[in-house]
Amino acid sequence: MRKIKWGVLGTAYIFERDTARGMALAENCELVAIAGRTLEKALAFKEKYGFTRAYGSYDALLDDPEIEAVYIPLPNTMHCEWTLRALRKGKHVLCEKPLAPTAAEAEEMFRVAQENGVHLMEAFAYQHSPLVQAVRDEIDRGTIGDVRYVEAALITSDYDMSNIRMRRETLGGCTYDLGVYAMSFIQRMLGREPRDVRAVASFAENHIDTYTTGVFEYDGGAKANFACGMVLATEKNSALDRFQIHGTKGSITSVNFGFNCPGTLSYRVKTFDGLDELRTVEVPNNYCLEVEQLGRCIAEGAQPAVSADFSVMLARTVDRVLASIGY
Fold it and tell me: How many whole angstroms separate alpha carbon 19 and alpha carbon 161?
């Protein structure tokens, strides 16, 4: 198995908390270079995570001819700029969600990727989860009939106002940080874009949304509801992750579920003809799965599991939600 030579742009918390472990587990990933805003910070990460070299600027890493793929965990406002720079340097890119602040920027990013013959994939680690695939398979098999209603939510602790999630200038707020999980889950299960979008939100003083909920309506009569918020006990790293899907023959409901959680996860299937089963799925590290998947795209000609069409459709929906709440 060929190992893809990776670089990481930035010493972000999500890399430390989640992606570093996933990249270390990925069989086709070689951690080559880390870049930070300062060389000192990059050198510290080099030693801690086993990179071969460190750079004191993002451009210096992108100029490294050995780097094949770049992971971008920078703040939301920097995703588009640095993804475009990496793509134009001929690097494949795994960029954290949300891929871009707007659908127009997302479309430009994929256009530039295509022009430069490289892959771009939005880093929705949970979309690679075998549990998510198992639920989608239930729908495809017709287990619950035609889907009439989908509900998904991700609610977390709130944070000190110094946290990047809580800053307007870095496009913080719960829709960008959390709502994209719930909305992308709904999109995965229904497979299409809503006809109508309506949403309401609560805002902090600096005009970032701290709780947002919305209703989607689809051609054919299906409806969906999403909720996201930073409202649980402050700085306790607690979360409420859930989904339910109702069809003309029954329902699927999360039982032991977390969007990016590994381990033994479960959901319940109930049908109107009497079936009532708890089904379990063994889920490995989702961050490892996404890194390995993009590696297969580069080395083996696979296609990104989180496609351009998926990410652009989601970005359009997020645009509509943000317009509805007045973000």
Answer: 24
| Six-digit token string for 279 | 């089904």
Q: List, in sequence order, every beta strand (DSSP E) within 36-78.
A: 53-55, 69-72
Angle between helices 308-325 and 180-190 (to 10 degrees): 130
- Give the rounded distance of the alpha carbon of 182 from its chain centre: 10
Give the sign of the dihedral formed by CA 310, CA 308, CA 177, CA 92.
Answer: positive
- C-alpha 216/C-alpha 225 separation (Å) is 6
pTM above 0.90, yes or no: yes
Provide the mean pLDDT of the chain.
Answer: 97
- Of 97, 223, 236, 270, the catalytic one is 97
Catalytic (active site) residue 97: yes
**pLDDT score recorded for residue 161:** 82
Complete DSSP assignment for 183-229: HHHHHHHH-S--SEEEEEEEE-TTS-EEEEEEEEE-TTS-EEEEEEE
